[in-house]
Amino acid sequence: MQKTDSSQMNFLEKQEYYLHLINELMSVRKRGEKPLAFIHTYGCQQNVADSEKIKGMLSSAGFDFVDAPDNADFILFNTCAVREHAEDRVFGNVGALKTLKRKHPQIMIALCGCMMEQKHIAERMYKSFPFVSLVFGTHSLQNFPQLFYDALFTGKRVYERDNDDKLIYEGIPIKRDGTFKGWLSIMYGCDNFCTYCIVPHVRGRERSRKRADIISEATEMINNGYKDITLLGQNVNSYGKGLDEKISFAELIGEIDKIPGDYWLRFMTSHPKDCSKELIDTIASSQHISKHIHLPFQSGSDRILKCMNRHYDRKKYLEIVNYAKAKIPGLSLTSDIIVGFPGETYEDFKQTLSLIKEVEFTSLFTFIYSPRVGTPAAKMDDPIPAEEKSKWFRELLDVQEEIASKRCASMVGNKEKILVESVNAKTGELQCRSSGNIIVECEGDKSLIGTFQNAEIIKARHWILKGKIV
Ligand code: SAH
Ligand code: SF4
Ligand code: F3S
């Protein structure tokens, strides 16, 4: 469901007005100097994209941005709840701000993001850290200006989570971190409820943006020189659900692909249960879609996949992977894996090892299972001790390192189109990326940053390639 355009306009105009008021208040407080904000983002690209909206709003209110909290007037932590480790870091880093706040009491400290949509965590943080002035969840992003203004103007603490208004707001300003690499959200939320995962609980149900809004944002990014655009969603393959217009993800990306320009299109994340042959065919025949699919399989054991509520089995996963490999020469596949899901045995884990050997992924994001309060898996029996899980985890890394080394070594001699991204501060070499999302290091001048080049792959070191720009 989408809000009517006119009521969205009114709402956004009101928020814009709050930004204007914040600007005035801050300019009095700073005696005409620019106020400074420090935004620290944890978690996935979804959070990075949200932070870019917050930065867009703060920019409109006259803020500049700094890389450290010390001189900032406004400090915001955009938090992630996906694993315990992510949460622990936030608790530690917020606690460390206490001294800074004591020294400079006028600083405003705020917390937002996925952790703040968990009632028990948000309340605990609000109580434990009385120097935090503003707490808001992912569902309150659109009224950040109003919340910020309330905290600033009244001097009282502001707390908002589980906002009922879970619609999509178009037109919130975005200040992207990159000038040639950028994120483009096409949908929000998740309906899948994998039994281990907190995301649907903190991000709400799936909502897709309208096709026309996405096309116009993509066109604008391409015209502004973006070379590497990633379409974002927790499960991009189910894009379109609930829209008045009938459109699949394959149709959407096929249409973006037609926008003229020199750029790569990527997307994440794909769910194997919804990854269609139509999508693979679209990638195969596209001009701009990179030859890389991130297709998390989580576990190679059918029994565990069932307990995870993933709605596919090993056979179906391999079927789609083999179809994709046949259709897209040189395809690079990556995946997420969870080790030590409750009840997983070493026999189950061996199924995961055999799957990664069979598919030969370019790289893997591997996680040890972390129980999340409120998810079904957190209540399941979990008899395997942590040390045992860590042993399996290391075994997985070793196997994958061998696969990645072999894969990269097989690319020596290839010609690859690469995007020059940065200079490696240690070696002085250019850090580049291939269409398959593999890092390629090359000699060259930093003026090439942000451009496409062609390189010959001359060497492979583990999962990094050495190239020569030709
Ligand atoms: N929507 C994406 C990914 C979301 S979270 C998808 O479905 O693929 C990113 C990854 O974190 C997941 O793919 C999973 O591998 C991991 N993850 C999620 N919850 C976890 C948990 N409780 N413990 C360990 N890893 C987890
Ligand atoms: Fe979490 Fe599963 Fe949704 Fe991904 S698809 S965000 S793992 S519930
Ligand atoms: Fe973390 Fe929220 Fe992303 S929980 S992984 S930041 S959707």
How do the helices and strands line up, and which of them pair or pack?
Layout: H1 5-29, E1 36-41, H2 45-60, E2 64-65, E3 74-79, H3 84-95, H4 98-103, E4 108-113, H5 119-128, E5 134-136, H6 144-154, E6 158-160, E7 181-185, E8 187-188, H7 199-203, E9 207-208, H8 211-223, E10 228-232, H9 249-257, E11 264-268, H10 277-285, E12 292-294, H11 302-307, H12 314-327, E13 332-339, H13 346-359, E14 363-368, H14 386-409, E15 415-423, E16 430-434, E17 439-442, E18 452-461, E19 464-469
Parallel strand pairs: 1-2, 1-3, 3-4, 4-5, 5-6, 7-10, 10-11, 12-13, 13-14, 17-19
Antiparallel strand pairs: 8-9, 15-16, 15-18, 16-17, 18-19
This protein binds S-adenosyl-L-homocysteine, iron/sulfur cluster and FE3-S4 cluster (F3S).
By DSSP, the count of extended strands is 19
- Number of helical segments? 14
CATH architecture of the largest domain: Alpha-Beta Horseshoe
Helix content: 25-40%
Q: How would you describe this structure in keywords?
A:
single chain; 470 residues; alpha/beta; Rossmann fold; pyruvate-formate lyase- activating enzyme; OB fold (Dihydrolipoamide Acetyltransferase, E2P); 3 domains; 6-stranded parallel β-sheet; 5-stranded mixed β-barrel; 14 helices; binds S-adenosyl-L-homocysteine; binds iron/sulfur cluster; binds FE3-S4 cluster
Brief summary of the model shown:
This protein has 470 residues and is of the alpha/beta class. It is 37% helix and 20% strand.
Q: Your description of this structure?
A:
By secondary structure, this protein is an alpha/beta fold. It folds into three domains: 5-160, Rossmann fold (3-Layer(aba) Sandwich), CATH 3.40.50; 181-409, tm_1862 like domain (pyruvate-formate lyase- activating enzyme, Alpha-Beta Horseshoe); 415-469, Nucleic acid-binding proteins (OB fold (Dihydrolipoamide Acetyltransferase, E2P), Beta Barrel). It has helices at residues 5-29, 45-60, 84-95, 98-103, 119-128, 144-154, 199-203, 211-223, 249-257, 277-285, 302-307, 314-327, 346-359, 386-409, and strands at 36-41, 64-65, 74-79, 108-113, 134-136, 158-160, 181-185, 187-188, 207-208, 228-232, 264-268, 292-294, 332-339, 363-368, 415-423, 430-434, 439-442, 452-461, 464-469. The protein has a six-stranded parallel β-sheet with strand order 2-1-3-4-5-6, with helices on both faces. The protein has a five-stranded mixed β-barrel with strand order 15-16-17-19-18. Strands 7-10-11 form a three-stranded parallel β-sheet, sandwiched between helices. α10 (277-285) packs parallel to α12. The chain is globular, with a radius of gyration of 23 Å. It starts with a helix and ends with a strand. Bound molecules: S-adenosyl-L-homocysteine, iron/sulfur cluster and FE3-S4 cluster. FE3-S4 cluster (F3S) binds at residues 43-44, 46-47, 80-82, 114, 198-199, 202-203.
